[in-house]
Design goal:
Blueprint (H helix, E strand, L loop, with lengths): L1 H8 L26 H14 L1 H4 L9 E3 L2 E5 L11 E7 L13 E6 L10 H9 L3 E5 L23 H24 L4 E7 L1 H12 L3 E7 L5 H7 L4 H6 L6 H7 L9 H5 L6 E6 L7 H13 L5 E5 L11 H16 L1
Parallel strand pairs: 4-5, 4-6, 6-7, 7-8, 8-9
Antiparallel strand pairs: 1-2, 2-3, 3-5
Helix pairs in contact: 5-6, 7-9
């Protein structure tokens, strides 16, 4: 299985090792040539002290739904103009609830890193056929949000410390804005499913968004830095940090976008149904990282449904595992929404 994982990973021949950059100017309004370490430290201290504010978007005034495409202006503006318009594909429910007074249900789907535009479309259609609306969100720098000079969504996670903080925060803000739109359309029971980096974003949103009633998280880890440092899919990103930062330093710099930072916040919340799905042969989200987060979540006393599949990170997207995974996603959210 590990050999198969490496074989699939090698198919992507357009990965670039980008240069290390602090990128403090992307998260601090007035860097003024100050020490980027100090600027990032101060930024992170503020974010962690008030993560509710850090991850809460302002009111969105320009939602537009045309056919099945929902767009709006992202709450966080980046230097890439294309990236500042959020796009999401909407799947209206085909069947209606049997009871007229049944709550309207919806699921927000967050794809994996560099997911093709048509990925998760079939999952959205399945939810729609079951009477559950679905919304597929394009993550920052993906699909039409990707600048023309990029072949891959390299700016979502990169050796630019500040840009990665900015991009991941933007992803959470966009996610919460999407949840608000669904709620404004009359959907009372809203769930979320995320895969890989989408799982990380979904988990951060789940902890900070009370409108989310249930969540499924495909591939899990507590620290973004550790996945980048050790994961098969991010070897080219890790190479950009060589000789610049240690893992411990990167972990500190990226703590505001890492699930482990918010376990205490999760513990203080009313429990909601959660399902983690992990792969026993995952080389991208190493198993010990997944197990550490599983233990941390269980230590809060919140019920956690844990599902292990005998495949890897990449092979989860191939038959038969993708069908088993889809079944585990759909049945859990259908039951708990």
């Amino acid at each position: 299985m590990h050999a198969r994982e490496r074989q699939i990973a090698r198919r992507d021949t357009n990965r670039l090792v980008r240069p290390f950059e602090w990128g403090a100017e992307l998260v601090v309004a007035h860097a003024n040539g100050d020490d980027p370490r100090e600027l990032l430290h101060a930024h992170n201290a503020r974010a962690l002290a008030d993560s509710a504010d850090y991850f809460t978007p302002p009111a969105i005034a320009d939602y537009q739904l045309r056919d099945n495409l929902l767009t709006w202006t992202s709450a966080l503006h980046t230097p890439a103009l294309e990236n500042n318009t959020v796009r999401a594909r909407f799947f209206a429910p085909v069947s209606k609830a049997k009871a007229s007074d049944a709550p309207r249900r919806a699921v927000l789907m967050l794809p994996h890193w560099n997911a093709p535009a048509e990925s998760y479309v079939e999952l959205g259609r399945i939810f729609a056929r079951l009477g559950i609306a679905a919304l597929r969100l394009s993550l920052p720098y993906h699909d039409e949000r990707r600048p023309s000079e990029l072949e891959r969504a390299d700016f979502l996670v990169s050796p630019n410390v500040g840009r990665t903080l900015q991009s991941m925060r933007q992803a959470v803000l966009d996610t919460r804005a999407a949840v608000r739109w669904l709620n404004a359309q009359g959907y009372e029971r809203i769930g979320i499913v995320g895969t890989s980096i989408g799982s990380c974003v979904a988990f951060l949103a789940f902890i900070h968004e009370p409108l989310l009633k249930s969540g499924v998280f495909n591939h899990v880890s507590g620290y973004v830095a550790d996945v980048v440092w050790r994961g098969l899919s991010t070897e080219h990103v890790r190479a950009g940090f060589d000789g610049q930062l240690t893992l411990a330093e990167l972990r500190r710099h990226w703590l505001p976008i890492s699930p482990f930072a918010y376990i205490e916040r999760l513990a203080a919340l009313t429990p909601r149904p959660m399902r983690f799905i992990a792969a026993r042969y995952d080389l991208t989200f190493p198993l010990d990282l997944s197990r550490d987060l599983i233990r941390a979540v269980r230590s809060t006393g919140h019920p956690l449904d844990m599902q292990w599949l005998p495949c890897g990170h990449y092979t989860l997207g191939h038959a038969p595992w993708k069908y088993i995974d889809g079944w585990k996603i759909v049945t859990f959210l259908r039951k708990h929404l």
